[in-house]
Amino acid sequence: MAFESLSEKLNAAFKKLRGKGRLHEADVKEAMREVRLALLEADVSYKVVKDFINTISARAVGADVLESLSPAQMVIKIVNEELVRLMGSTNAKLQISSKPPTVVMLVGLQGAGKTTNGAKLAALMRKTQGKRPLLVACDIYRPAAIKQLETVGAQLDIPVFQMGTANPVDIAKAAIAHANKHGNDMVFLDTAGRLHIDEALMEELKNIKAAVDPAEILLVVDAMTGQDAVNAATAFNDALGIDGIMLTKLDGDARGGAALSVRAITGKPVKFAGTGEKLDQIEVFHPDRMASRILGMGDVLTLIEKAEQNFDEKKAREMAEKLSKNRFTLTDYYEQLTQLKSMGSLSDIAGMLPGVDAKALAGASVDEKAIGKTEAIILSMTRQERENPTVLNSSRKKRIAAGSGTQVVDINRLLKQFETMQALTKQMSKGKMPAMLGGGKM
Ligand code: GDP
């Protein structure tokens, strides 16, 4: 999985902030020292790390900790926001020409994943934007390169244009003419790579660029090479000028250094990510989702935002009372479930809280359909049953199943979820209460 070693180290740093009542400068300093080390070990550029830590420290010390967030959560929130910013804030889209065909020139070192990911991208554009792509073999130096492009093209049912070992500039021009004639509105030029950046390669790429004026020069770099990927990006950008970056092999990148530095160092956005060898393993690069993954916590920010928008503080406090006194009943559970409808699953929400093992809560996850069933079941119970589910023997369960149009297994499942939830609340009442279950407004 991507980023796991970085995630682990960052989480270890945050763990130490748990249980702290307020954010004191010394605590933040200590945590930041560890975050800094984690980033350096992840092969994030030194300068990027330095700026990043300075920004976060300044924000964290003396930050107005939201009432419902623990200091650890507050620091994670800030780190998350800064990671997103570091990676470019929003997804940058591929440039599309006003007059077709849109020419995308794929450049990069040999082995970075140009050929495979260029083809994946062509397929993605066809699927998501209804484009009619053409793949073009401009790598005339490795005979295997043309064959490889033809193979992936055939697998994806995308036409491939090739002229053997003709001059790459001529091939590119002929390919565009071919595209015009055959109605291909996107042309992907698979250019030659080298093991190292050299003059001859750059010269050739510049000539192609001058001849076809591509809408997008997309640099393909191997995320697993960390700072080398960033150096390659800098060199290509200086020599050729690039418009965007495709990070490949993210699936094998435990450290994340390239993903985190390349935008800050080159000023050019990462637009796509390759996430495996299969031809559909490509993703549009979203800085916010990457940050969440790095922090190993799903889509936290979205959840926090949703919580901010959806929660009734007074009700939440009442619920907190009940939870802390263990007077939380199925009626309350029902109320929570209806609120959850707009929030996502319980395990997702629990997963965003430091110290709660989301995996252990898989049984407590709630989807919308299940909520509908649960509503029906709880509404078919008597008041006494809702307040005290232990009275539910098998004949009562049968009655409720009949009344709610469900099965006894559904009722048992609900009771199990409720128990899991109670266990969770016990666990949390020892530490910090998650706001959505009653810790106040997030
Ligand atoms: P090129 O020389 O730049 O054209 O690179 P290729 O497209 O031939 O890719 C080099 C190798 O990397 C091939 O074995 C690909 O299957 C592999 N590869 C490309 N992208 C990914 C990716 O996102 N994840 C993984 N695991 N392997 C990839």
Q: Got a strand count? A: 8
How many distinct helices?
19
User: Which class of the largest domain in CATH terms?
Assistant: Alpha Beta
Helix content: 40-55%
SS strand fraction: 5-15%
How far apart are the termini? 30 Å
Strands side by side in the biggest sheet: 3-2-4-1-5-6-7-8
N-to-C order of helices and strands? HHHHEHEHEHEHEHEHEEHHHHHHHHH
SS-derived structural category: alpha/beta
- Could you say what the CATH architecture of the largest domain is? 3-Layer(aba) Sandwich
Radius of gyration: 27 Å
Rough shape?
A: flat
Main beta-sheet strand count, sense and barrel state:
8 strands, mixed
CATH fold field value of the largest domain: Rossmann fold
Tell me the name of the CATH homologous superfamily of the largest domain.
P-loop containing nucleotide triphosphate hydrolases
Small molecules bound in the structure, each named once? guanosine-5'-diphosphate
Protein name: Signal recognition particle protein
GO molecular function, one term: GTP binding
Binding site for GTP: 108-115, 190-194, 248-251
Domain SRP54-type proteins GTP-binding: 269-282
